[in-house]
Q: What sequence folds into this?
């Protein structure tokens, strides 16, 4: 098979490399495999032992520079490698479900401050987005700039409660510092 | 290249619209409508077992790539693209046939490397993730995934983890990826001064001398004047020269009691007996207050303590305890307490009494003494309950004279005790006829008389039993009687109930009462919804049922309308479906009898449990609905 000679033996499985990419990333890892066809190098990073590893698939043509740090044996136990497609699919579905749930919580086109206010409120109150308005308990609306004065609607009791929570959360956010 | 519309499909995409990742950052990368076409099958699902899908290239390294890529499916990954931007999403598929394109689901831009400049990560949060994001192979730089289970163990664990994730545990529900950064947590280190808090250490050392008077403090702080008078709550202590002797005596008694052996696990633990070392007792038995009734092994004298505690546990309530105690006392020959206990017996739960009673019933041997019952002991429960009981008893099939007695007792329980002397008269020394006889006579009075008699009977029985030293059982029986009319099963049994005492409000224990023996085979109380219980096989053990219960006629007075065939004459009411008339005065208790109690709580008799083999005439006026 024709292969790029520069990527020849250096990419033997088990080698420890230190790599610099053209995009500025630097990392070290152990080669798990290298596919010449697609030119993808699969590395295992970190010294984590056990079944769970941090892996990185890197297109080899983005390697700016690398050095061979050492050589070890294959990090993968070939005997133990098998796939359970069903569980993989289940995992994917679960992850998607989870991500969808979380996606709802994000306001579109709102500032990060607004988002953090939303998150803070959501800890104790049922909230959801209505464009850029935070709707609490389906009654009370908090619009930009999400100050206690912007709390509108709902029963007086609910309104007060939201105001209180909002004030408190804002204080907390400020106390935490502007960094987020 | 137009990035908004579906671009002409690249050959390897098999008709897929591809969208360049690189774009103004503000643009939405939602390629949903097009990604709809991204059927996984159009891509080679990485890791598909059939390696043949891999375009015919058979390099083993390719296989490994496929394998590893497959391991990534469903995992959260970061994909970096040519312009430096990074996307985070769920790895969905890859096109491994030709080149290596990637499809992510719910992808978000996390790093913007476009010409627009670096925007802070937070800004990008304000955008919803793309449902599907296709990254062409040409754009792909690298894929980073953390914590990927690669080999067998990891996969198995991963599956478990996923399964667990589906269960909405609290931490999952409350967990949010957008968690606020909490303040910096510091480990607590004790400050120097904190170490010197002596009060905390010896706070329990000397309860009587803590140099602290709450009343004083309250008055000082809040101006609250206390009206606490110790003697309102406890026996007045005779302070004086005799005090020391009394104290000594009291502590001696206390020591005696506390040093008693007990079979009850909890008491034993309290008293320091580690008797369960050789037992294979699980935590529940040791620490739970639910009485499973499995250890009803002995009915020795020491049992009373156990029973007491058990009863107390099961039924909770101070009343139960009181009853137990009082009866224990009685059992021990102290009669003073009995009265008090009887009074306190006004129960709440028939059930408790029932269950206990059932046990006790077994033990009740023919009690020949008349007992004096405290009428107050009788609890007033709905008549229906009593009736129900009766029905149940009958239905139980093995209702024997006991049943009738029970019934009567029930009724008695329900009503206030106004034992008429006439009621008592009817009671024979054998006590079997206690309630029945009296009640019979007072047809009209029904409840009142019944109650009265039953009360006395029941009480008497109980008392008698107690005096036998079976405090435990007596307790139960007492409770049964007192507590609930349903308890009738038990209470009625005490044959030795002193009828005479019925009329009197005072209760006096019969010192000659036969001791109540707990039947180890007694069934524990099992609350059940159905008021009726099918006849159950009679368990071995002595059964008590009041023989010679002239109660038969008494049956008529049952307001419930359970027809008690007058034909029964003087037979002890044996409502045995098998219709085996029990002749012997042997105390016999239907094994189900005690259980009836539980059911009777149900308030209204549902079916006529009584299925005598006698002619239907036995049924009373009221036909109970089935």
A:
């Amino acid at each position: 098979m024709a292969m790029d000679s520069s990527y020849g033996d250096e990419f033997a499985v088990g080698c420890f490399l230190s790599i610099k990419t053209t995009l500025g990333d630097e990392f070290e890892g152990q080669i798990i495999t290298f596919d010449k066809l697609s030119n993808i190098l699969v590395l295992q990073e970190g010294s984590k032992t056990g079944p769970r590893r941090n892996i990185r698939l890197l297109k080899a043509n983005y390697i700016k520079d690398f050095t061979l740090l050492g050589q070890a044996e294959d990090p993968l136990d070939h005997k133990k490698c098998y796939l359970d497609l069903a569980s993989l699919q289940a995992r994917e579905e679960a992850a998607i479900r989870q991500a969808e749930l979380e996606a709802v919580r994000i306001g579109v086109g709102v500032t990060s401050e607004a988002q953090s206010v939303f998150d803070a409120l959501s800890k104790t109150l049922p909230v959801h987005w209505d464009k850029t308005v935070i709707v609490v308990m389906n009654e009370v609306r908090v619009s930009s700039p999400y100050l206690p004065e912007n709390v509108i609607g709902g029963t007086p009791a609910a309104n007060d409660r939201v105001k209180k929570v909002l004030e408190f959360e804002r204080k907390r956010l400020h106390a935490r510092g502007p960094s987020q | 290249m137009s990035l908004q519309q579906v671009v002409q499909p690249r050959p390897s995409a098999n008709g897929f619209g591809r969208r360049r990742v690189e774009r103004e950052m503000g643009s939405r990368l939602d390629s949903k409508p097009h990604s709809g076409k991204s059927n996984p099958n159009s891509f080679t699902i990485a890791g598909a077992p059939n390696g043949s899908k891999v375009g015919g290239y058979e390099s083993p390294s390719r296989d490994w790539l496929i394998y590893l890529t497959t391991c990534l499916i469903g995992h959260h990954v970061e994909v970096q693209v040519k312009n430096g931007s990074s996307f985070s999403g769920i790895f969905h598929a890859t096109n491994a046939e030709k080149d290596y394109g990637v499809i992510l689901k719910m992808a978000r831009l996390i790093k913007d490397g476009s010409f627009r400049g670096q925007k802070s990560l937070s800004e990008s949060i304000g955008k919803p993730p793309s449902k599907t994001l296709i990254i062409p192979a040409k754009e792909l730089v690298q894929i980073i995934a953390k914590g990927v289970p690669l080999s067998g163990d990891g996969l198995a664990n991963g599956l478990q983890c996923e399964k667990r994730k589906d269960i909405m545990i609290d931490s999952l529900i409350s967990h949010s990826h957008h968690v606020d950064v909490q303040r910096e947590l510091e480990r607590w280190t004790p400050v120097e001064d904190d170490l010197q808090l002596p009060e905390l250490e010896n706070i329990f050392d000397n309860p009587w001398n803590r140099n602290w008077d709450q009343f004083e403090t309250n008055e000082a702080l809040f101006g609250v004047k206390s009206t606490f008078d110790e003697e309102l709550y406890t026996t007045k202590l005779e302070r004086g020269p005799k005090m020391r002797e009394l104290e000594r005596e009291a502590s001696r008694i206390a020591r005696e009691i506390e040093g008693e052996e007990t079979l009850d696990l909890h008491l034993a633990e309290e008293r320091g007996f580690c008797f369960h070392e050789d037992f294979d007792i699980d935590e529940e038995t040791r620490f739970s207050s639910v009485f499973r009734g499995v250890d009803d092994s002995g009915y020795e004298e020491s049992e009373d303590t156990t029973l007491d505690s058990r009863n107390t546990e099961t039924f909770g309530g101070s009343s139960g305890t009181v009853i137990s105690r009082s009866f224990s006392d009685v059992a021990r020959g102290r009669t003073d307490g009995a009265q008090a206990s009887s009074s306190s017996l006004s129960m709440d739960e028939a059930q408790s009494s029932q269950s206990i009673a059932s046990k006790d019933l077994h033990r009740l041997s023919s009690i020949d003494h008349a007992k004096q019952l405290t009428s107050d002991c009788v609890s007033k429960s709905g008549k229906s309950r009593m009736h129900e009981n009766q029905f149940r008893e009958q239905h139980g099939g093995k209702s024997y004279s006991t049943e009738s007695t029970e019934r009567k007792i029930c009724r008695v329980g329900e009503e206030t005790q106004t034992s008429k002397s006439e009621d008592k008269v009817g009671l024979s020394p054998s006590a079997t006829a206690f309630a029945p006889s009296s009640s019979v006579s007072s047809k009209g009075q029904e409840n009142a008389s019944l109650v009265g008699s039953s009360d006395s009977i029941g009480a008497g029985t109980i008392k008698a039993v107690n005096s036998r030293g079976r405090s435990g059982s007596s307790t139960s029986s007492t409770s049964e009687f007192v507590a609930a009319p349903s308890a009738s099963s038990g209470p009625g049994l005490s044959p030795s109930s002193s009828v005479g005492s019925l009329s009197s409000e005072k209760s006096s224990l019969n010192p000659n009462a036969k001791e109540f023996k707990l039947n180890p085979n007694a069934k524990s109380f099992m609350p059940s919804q159905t008021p009726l219980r099918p006849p159950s096989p009679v368990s071995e053990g002595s059964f008590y049922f009041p023989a010679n219960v002239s109660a038969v006629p008494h049956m008529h007075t049952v307001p419930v309308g359970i027809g008690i065939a007058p034909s029964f004459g003087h037979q002890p009411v044996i409502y045995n479906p098998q219709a085996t008339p029990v002749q012997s005065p042997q105390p016999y208790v239907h094994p189900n009898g005690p259980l009836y109690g539980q059911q009777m709580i149900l308030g209204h008799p549902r079916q006529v449990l009584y299925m005598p083999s006698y002619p239907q005439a036995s049924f009373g006026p009221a036909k109970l609905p089935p």
